Amino acid sequence: MPFHIIRNDITKMQVDAIVNAANRSLLGGGGVDGAIHKAAGPGLLAECKMLGGVKTGEAKITGGYRLPCRYVIHTAGPVYRSGNENEAALLASCYLSSLKIAHERNLESIAFPLISAGAYGYPRDQVFRIAADTIRAFLANHDMTVYLVIFDSASMSIGQALFYDIRRYIDDNYAEQHANLRAPENMPEVYGDAMPDGASSGYEPERGGFFYDQGFTTISAFPDEYEGCLFQRELEDLFDTIDESFTQMLLRKIDERGMKDSECYKRANIDRKLFSKIRSDIHYRPKKPTAIAFAIALELSLMETSELLSKAGYALSKSSKFDVIIEYFISKRIYDIHMINEALFTFDQQLLGS
Ligand code: APR
User: Fold this and answer.
1) Per residue in 218-254, pLDDT tens?
2) Are residues 7 and 143 in the same domain?
3) Do residues 226 and 249 share a domain?
4) How far apart are the CA of 120 and the centre of ligand 1, in A?
5) Distance from the alpha carbon of residue 77 to the mean position of ligand 1, in angstroms
6) How many domains does the chain have?
7) Minimal CA–CA distance to 221: which of 165, 169, 175, 167?
8) Residues with a CB atom less than 6 Å from ligand 1
9) Smallest Cα–Cα separation from 163: which of 31, 344, 37, 352?
10) Which domain covers residue 322, as residue numbers?
11) From 32, 93, 120, 152, mutation site for ligand 1 pocket: most ligand atoms within 8 A of C-beta
12) How far apart are CA 266 and CA 262, in angstroms?
């Protein structure tokens, strides 16, 4: 997975380079600057003294000294004032300048803090969005592993409205909180003459997927959660693809959408090597987050997602908070994998991708 959002102390990162949110003098300070200099030892300051400072939005590189990384890339973020003084462009430039230096040195991995989100007062959610957008745009044309390191959970924000909407969806759907959502023992046939008078059934994402409504009991589920739960589908379509493997369905969906392979795996936040492995093995069985990442990249419906997952032996389950959050986004047809990862990160879930 080329882009990781992780909670860690950047001085512990074993990557080619970590980025320091420094000031223009490059002579050390507090916050992450202070932590990096403390962990690196005096050699770092001695080298920084020879750099002659750095302009806001620009970056310079030094050795890593006692740090577990090989290099430190120092950049000075903008001090946040009103938001109308070119702060966003300068902040984006901090990330891009650092990525360019790493690329010029053929570095394979780099870790960033949330530059300017501390002493420089930049609103954290705006920093997160600018950092994520700049990194994503860079990774669309470059192979590198990039970490965005969140030091404290307060730094992470997906926006209050989205956070509360997802939390309400989890409260409504997450099986741990709603025992009655589990299938009753004697689940009746949903189709055929077993349907009681007045009952109805169908598929409505906003009702949690497939539903069977007897007027007094509404049970929503995905087909793979019940034995014998039939749902309306083109049977010939089903039979045509019933023997298809995960890889075959993935490649078919890429073709059907007129996508290039690279477009699909980059949108899925999957690295090229893993995709080549999947493409070359017709019976490849991916990890569940990887399979879901491809479903998101292909913008599959909930039904198609269930089918793709089933090819790899998985199912979306209401007993998994991760799956319920994925179901939230797919049911609302929101396929921005980085927004989904930000949400998964906020709810302490594993991220999508390889
Ligand atoms: N690892 C990762 N992130 C960290 C760490 C750490 N060890 N320590 C702090 N952070 C995070 C903070 O939580 C914040 O989100 O780094 C982000 C940036 O905060 P600051 O370090 O205060 O940097 P910034 O806001 O860019 O201000 C830079 O502060 O330390 C001085 O010399 C520095 O003058 C410069 C100014």
Assistant:
1) 344 443 433 333 344 445 555 666 679 999 999 999 9
2) yes
3) no
4) 8
5) 10
6) 3
7) 175
8) 9-11, 21-23, 29-35, 77, 113-120, 149, 151-152, 155
9) 344
10) 244-346
11) 32
12) 6
